[in-house]
């Protein structure tokens, strides 16, 4: 596999970058979907927001873009229609899932 881009992360690297930020903001789950795995330059993430509210979502997005050095599309699951969700769920990858007990620092 030829590395076509300077900034190309493996799934594990994405997990390592996303996890501390997801924990900081209180996200429930973060999934990678879309064409990043096929060489696209931006990262499409679906998020189950958990305890993230309002402007915190924008902060999470900015922090993700800073950490990755890439454009990120951060899409809350609640904003997707069922048909689109079904389509992306077939090949999305779970990057982060919160523990069942909620110990978010933002409570």
Would you mind describing this structure in some detail?
Strand 2, helix 2 (55-68) and strand 3 (72-76) form a beta-alpha-beta unit. This protein has 107 residues and is of the alpha+beta class. It starts with 10 loop residues before the first helix and ends in a 10-residue tail after the last strand. Helix 1 (11-25) runs antiparallel to helix 2 (55-68). The model is unreliable at 1-5 (pLDDT under 50). It is globular, with a radius of gyration of 14 Å. The protein has a four-stranded mixed beta sheet with strand order 3-2-1-4, with helices on one face. It is 35% helix and 20% strand. It has helices at 11-25, 55-68, 82-89; strands spanning 29-33, 43-48, 72-76, 93-97.
Question: What layout of secondary structure does this protein have?
Answer:
Layout: H1 11-25, E1 29-33, E2 43-48, H2 55-68, E3 72-76, H3 82-89, E4 93-97
Parallel strand pairs: 2-3
Antiparallel strand pairs: 1-2, 1-4
Helix pairs in contact: 1-2
């Amino acid at each position: 596999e030829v590395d076509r881009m300077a900034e190309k992360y493996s799934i594990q690297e994405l997990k390592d970058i996303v996890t501390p930020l997801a924990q900081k903001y209180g996200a429930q789950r973060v999934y990678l979907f879309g064409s990043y795995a096929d060489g696209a330059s931006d990262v499409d993430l679906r998020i189950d927001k958990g305890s993230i509210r309002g402007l915190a979502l924008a902060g999470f997005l900015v922090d993700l873009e800073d950490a990755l050095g890439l454009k990120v599309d951060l899409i809350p699951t609640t904003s997707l229609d069922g048909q689109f969700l079904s389509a992306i769920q077939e090949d999305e990858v779970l990057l982060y899932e919160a523990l069942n007990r909620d110990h978010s620092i933002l409570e």
